[in-house]
Amino acid sequence: MVRQFKTIEGFIGHLTTRGLAVDVAVHRGVEEGAALIERDTKEQIGHYLDGPEPGLPTAPLADSTIDERIRLGFTPDDPGLRTGDMRESYGVRISEAGPVVHASIGSDDIKAVVFELGRMEQKNYQPPRPELSVAAFRNEHKIVRRIGALAVRAMCGLPLPNQREGDE
Length: 168
Known about the structure:
Helices cover 49% and strands 6% of the residues. It has six helices and two strands. The protein has helices at residues 8-17, 19-44, 63-71, 85-88, 110-117, 131-155; strands at 90-94, 103-107. Strands 1-2 form a two-stranded antiparallel ribbon. Helix 2 (19-44) packs antiparallel against helix 6. 18% of the residues are buried.
């Protein structure tokens, strides 16, 4: 059902009554988007990335790194994936619902930071492997569309769907 308003004041009044619902919808969309980026980042670790995004394709592992991985009992050619601890260190933090919602996706593990950004020291060079950046870039349009769709539902007075984006 399409609502029509005779005045801009009527439209503003309608949006004012929907404010809290819109805040909740935006929060839901940001939360789902952050979870999607986190999931894709975790899935990418251990694989070489290729594509048009900045920093891609990712560089192959150095022979010395492959030799070290084998010596330590790990698979030879899975970048960033040894025990899985670094991959599992990624998480999400979301601010409370409100007119502005902030999301942080990342890891507190310094290895994940170095993995993402690289290390430029001459004797200890490691090329950047922008897993998090690529996951965010690849999902940006999907996340924006989802947040918009949830906000529109809230503005129209429709309930938010129970199933979240990405749920099976």
